[in-house]
Design goal:
By secondary structure, this protein is an alpha/beta fold. It has two domains: 114 residues, 2-Layer Sandwich (Nucleotidyltransferase, domain 5), CATH 3.30.420.40; 57 residues, 2-Layer Sandwich (Nucleotidyltransferase, domain 5), CATH 3.30.420.200.
C-alpha cells in the first residue's frame, strides 16, 4: 500500500511516501509562506525518485489543522484534489496530533499568535485533551500541573524545547478508522479561531 503524507500546517513543508507503513521517501524543510509553490513539485519529485506514478497511490493522509490559515488550506486542497481525482481514501489528522511522542503523554503545541497556543494532549492510545486554543499563560500553568507530560511541537515561542518527533511517521501511523474522511468534497480544515 502506497501512502502520500502531507503537512503544511506550520512553517515547514513535510511530504512523505510510505509503502506498507514504512517511510520510503520524505522531504521536510522550512517553507513559510511558500508551501503553495513547493508542495505539488515535491510530491511529483518524490514519486519520480521512487519510480512511482500517481496510479500507484492507495491513500492520502494530510494534517487538517489547526495551524497557519493559508498553510492548512494548501495541504487540504491538494490532498482533497488528489483523493477525488484518483478516487482514493483521504485521512484527516490533527496538526497537533502529528507532534505527539511515541511513548507517554504529550502536550502538543503550536503558536496561534496573539499570545495564544493551539494545544492538544495525547497518549499513544487516546486523546486526553481535544485540540483547543489557550492563552500562553494557561499553557504554562497546564505544563506546570503535568510535569511528567512531554512537551512537543515547535515551542521556541514559549522559550521551551520540544521533543523530537517525525511528523511523517505520526501521519503514517495515525488511527485509520478515526481519521477516515467519509466525504472528500465536504472535508474542511480545522482553524479553532475566528478569521
Amino acid at each position: 500500500m502506497i501512502s502520500v503524507l502531507l503537512d503544511t500546517s506550520n512553517t515547514n513543508l513535510s511530504v512523505g511516501i510510505a509503502k506498507d507503513h514504512a517511510l520510503i521517501g520524505e522531504t521536510q524543510y522550512a517553507a513559510w509562506q511558500r508551501q503553495s509553490e513547493y508542495l505539488v513539485p515535491e510530491i511529483d519529485h518524490l514519486l519520480k525518485k521512487l519510480s512511482l506514478t500517481k496510479d500507484d497511490i492507495d491513500e492520502i493522509v494530510v494534517s487538517k489543522g489547526p495551524g497557519s490559515y493559508t498553510g492548512v488550506r494548501i495541504g487540504m486542497t491538494v490532498a482533497k484534489v488528489m483523493a477525488f481525482a484518483l478516487n482514493k481514501p483521504l485521512y484527516l489528522v490533527s496538526s497537533l496530533e502529528v507532534y505527539k511522542a511515541k511513548e507517554g503523554r504529550s502536550v502538543c503545541l503550536m503558536n496561534a499568535r496573539s499570545k495564544r497556543s493551539y494545544i492538544g494532549v495525547y497518549s499513544p492510545e487516546e486523546i486526553i485533551l481535544s485540540d483547543t486554543i489557550m492563552d500562553n499563560e494557561q499553557v504554562k500553568m497546564y505544563l506546570a500541573a503535568h510535569p511528567d507530560y512531554k512537551v512537543c511541537g515547535d515551542v521556541s515561542y514559549l522559550s521551551l524545547r520540544g521533543e523530537k518527533v517525525n511528523i511523517l511517521e505520526n501521519l503514517m501511523n495515525a488511527d485509520v478508522e478515526r481519521n477516515l474522511c467519509k466525504d472528500v468534497l465536504a472535508a474542511k480544515p480545522v482553524y479553532l479561531k475566528d478569521l
